[in-house]
Structure formats: structure tokens, C-alpha cells
Amino acid sequence: MELTWHGHSTWYVTVGDTSLLIDPFFDNPLTSLSPSDIETPDYVLLTHGHADHIADAGEFDGATVVGTPEIVGYVEAEMGVDDTIGMNIGGTVELGDAFVTMVRADHTNGINTSYEYDAGMPGGYVISDKLPSHESDDDTTTFYHAGDTGLMTDMREIFAPYLEPDAAALPVGDHYTMGPMQAAIASDWLDVDHVFPMHYNTFPAIEIDIRDFEHEVKAAGSKAEVHVLEADESFTLE
């Protein structure tokens, strides 16, 4: 599984022959790329309706947009997207070589931070190369994109024991989401081997010293290795 971070919460994930782009927002100061520089993904996954997560959802002709029924209805009506898949919290859909489970996130969800549209529940995605099962399989590779969220016991009680992520991308910028301390607890609760900080240093309100997150992960007793990627840098998850 190939993971590429394009700044903020934007990730390009390749599972086998299937590509997925999560929360496309290329108007962030950490990347020099634009949507036209990115190979069109097979699927675009949207965690929630805020502008810094859906801004470029309509820029990929031929991609299928996935999200809550409310979000995909919005991108159909307002962005001209023709091909969509609506799903919801707890559901798993097979998208090519990937199995994608939508999980809960603790956040708000007005479209474009407006109350004009209801985007349904905010969420995160657990992406795996095999269907989630009670039968644990060490050969399965699984990546958790938390979306915008605060710390939740679901990470410890549901995601870790039953969805078994190997790696997690967690928001760490504070103010609108978890900060370094709570995200470090999340990395411990999730029992992941690898953790990637995201959703930081994009706006003044979420500017942090990322070394604080690395320190907090160690202080929390997490076994996770922290990977602070540069924008547009890739990591191979095996």
C-alpha cells in the first residue's frame, strides 16, 4: 500500500491497482501541486463537508466520489460530479482492490462551514486490502485516515481490536481537532505501528511545532513510529 501526503488532510492511497484520493484540498501552503498535477484517482473519498476537505472534489473527471449520501448529493448538484457512491458510518464498500470502511469522527459538518447544507455525519476511513473480519490476518495491510476528529474511545474499543489498523493519519493541529497530546493518546489506543501527523501548519490557528507531537507520542507510551512527511512525500506500508 502506497501512501502519499499532499499537505493538510489530503492523501493519495494506492491499494493494488486501485487509487484513492482522500479530502482533496490542494490550495494549501504545504504543497506546490495542483489537481491537474495528480494522476486521476479511481475514487475520491470525502470525510466531511468543510471547504478544506472537499474543495477539489470535482476536479477529477472519471473519478467516483465517495462519502455520505448528503455529501455526494452536494457534489452532484454543486460540482457537477456524475459518478458517486453514498455510504455511511459503519458501512464497508469494496472499491476495486480496496475495502473501505467509514467510521465515526467527532467534529461538525456543515458544507463549506455553512448551515445552508447538512453533510450528514463526519467520518474517517479505514482502508484495507482485505475485507474486515473477526479472523485476524497478519498479511492484511490497513490504513486509518481519521478525518477531522477529537479523541474518542471508539479508537480503543472498536477501531483497534476489530479493524486493526497498521498505520494512522491523525489530525494534530489543535483548535479545530485533536492537538499533539490527544493525538498521541489516539496513536496509543489505536495500537498502530506507524502514525502520520496531518491537519497542521495550514492556517495560523493550527500552526504547531511538530516536535511536540513526536514528544507526546513517546510520553504516551505508544509503540507507534512517527513519520513526519514532507508534502508530496510517499511512504510504503507493508
UniProtKB/TrEMBL annotation:
InterPro entries: Metallo-B-lactamas (IPR001279), RibonucZ/Hydroxyglut_hydro (IPR036866), UPF0173 (IPR022877), UPF0173_UPF0282_UlaG_hydrolase (IPR050114)
Keywords: Hydrolase
Gene3D superfamilies for the chain: Ribonuclease Z/Hydroxyacylglutathione hydrolase-like (3.60.15.10)
Organism superkingdom: Archaea
Gene Ontology MF terms: hydrolase activity
Residues of the Metallo-beta-lactamase domain: 7-199
Family designation: Belongs to the UPF0173 family.
Database matches in HAMAP family: UPF0173
Protein's name in the database: UPF0173 metal-dependent hydrolase GJR98_11600
